[in-house]
Amino acid sequence: MMFTPRTRRLVVAMLAAAGMLWCGTAVGAPLASCVQPEWCTVTAAGYKSPVAAQFAVGNVSSGTKLAVTQPAARERELGGEIVEGRLARACAWSQYDYDWKPIRVTADSSCMNPTLERTRFIAAHGTAIWTACHVECFDGVATHFNRACTVGHNTWCYGRPCQEYANFFPLSPRARLVDPLRLVRDHTLNVRYLSRYRDLRSGDPVYLVHDAKVPHGHGNWVFIDGTACGLRVGPTGTYDRRGSQPGAAMARAQTQEWLLRALPNAFAVWHIADLD
Q1: Of 202, 210, 172, the residue nearest 54 (C-alpha)
Q2: Domain positions in the chain
Q3: Phi and psi at residue 223, in whole multiples of 5°?
Q4: Of 110, 145, 173, which is closest to residue 231 (Cα–Cα)?
Q5: Residue 134: which of 240, 253, 209, 53 has the closest Cα?
Q6: Are 92 and 114 spatial neighbours (Cβ–Cβ below 8 Å)?
Q7: How far, in Å, CA of 157 to CA of 195, rounded?
Q8: Residue 18: count of CB within 10 angstroms of its CB
């Protein structure tokens, strides 16, 4: 169920009635409840800017309440404070507003500006990001299970069965992988960003990935331990759907075209090699 235009107007009116709403003090904010079957993904921002974007930063379980301080009708998102569960007291945005259902209860919230700048949770001063452009440029770059991933020069793969976690929390040097979800080895994991902090217990790098085999509402944006999974990726940046950066993608296309003309069977061999 999504927020209707009437509900949006009601939320805005309630917030406006609070008077000193944007001063940063606690105010009574309308609550919304996560209505997905298992998990609602929460993000760092309700829009894209030079310092922030809609990157997933965690997940809350079904039924968790969000104190809404910023409804963003244009982006179909809700911003505010998570009031219970693992991420209680964290400021965040919903991934989609239809993940949440308004309830006739209010709660105090001091998250007047829930936007989280990417430098706070993404490595390399907020630049350790991988973007895959299919129709739109918003997903991570695909990696596949390959037992040989940890040897040689293989990239875009993970070499060991990989444990997925719903959260990497808190956003500090004490961050830990928590809320284990599933162990996978046949799923495509689209790598989105490298977390600023390493896991407190293992000292390993932590990545946010999109598990392409898991449906929305069941925890498909998750965190993994890069070392434990044997993850190997290429340089950060923007890639096409086949895991190539734009310049490399063009060069590969030209090479494939030449091979197809010169050696009719080479094209099939090329794609068989790509399966690894």
Answers
A1: 210
A2: 5-116, 119-243
A3: -110, 145
A4: 145
A5: 240
A6: yes
A7: 18
A8: 16
Strand partners, 207: 194, 224
| Cα distance between residue 28 and residue 253, in whole Å | 57
Question: Taking the mean position of all CA atoms in its chain, how far away is CA 23?
Answer: 29
Angle between helices 266-274 and 246-262 (to 10 degrees): 140
User: What is the separation of C-alpha 258 from the centre of its chain, rounded to a whole number of angstroms?
Assistant: 38
What does the alpha-carbon distance between residue 139 and residue 133 come to, in Å, rounded to a whole number? 7
User: In the numeric block, which tokens belong to residue 91?
Assistant: 């400021």
In the structure encoding, which two tokens stand for residue 68, read together? Answer: 């809404």
Q: Which is nearest to 158 in space by CA: 133, 178, 186?
A: 186
- Report the length, in residues, of the chain: 276
- Residue 32 to residues 45, 63, 82, 270: CA-CA distances in angstroms? 17, 9, 10, 51
The structure tokens 């993970």 sit at 158
Query: Which of 212, 220, 180 has the alpha carbon at shortest distance from 199?
Result: 180
Please report, in tens digits, the pLDDT of each residue of the chain (276 residues total). Answer: 344 444 444 444 443 333 223 334 456 899 999 999 999 999 999 877 778 888 999 999 999 999 999 877 666 889 999 999 999 999 999 998 899 999 988 888 889 889 999 999 999 999 999 999 877 778 999 999 999 997 878 899 999 999 999 999 999 999 999 999 999 999 999 999 999 999 999 999 999 999 999 999 999 999 999 999 999 999 999 987 655 565 454 444 344 444 544 554 443 333 323 322
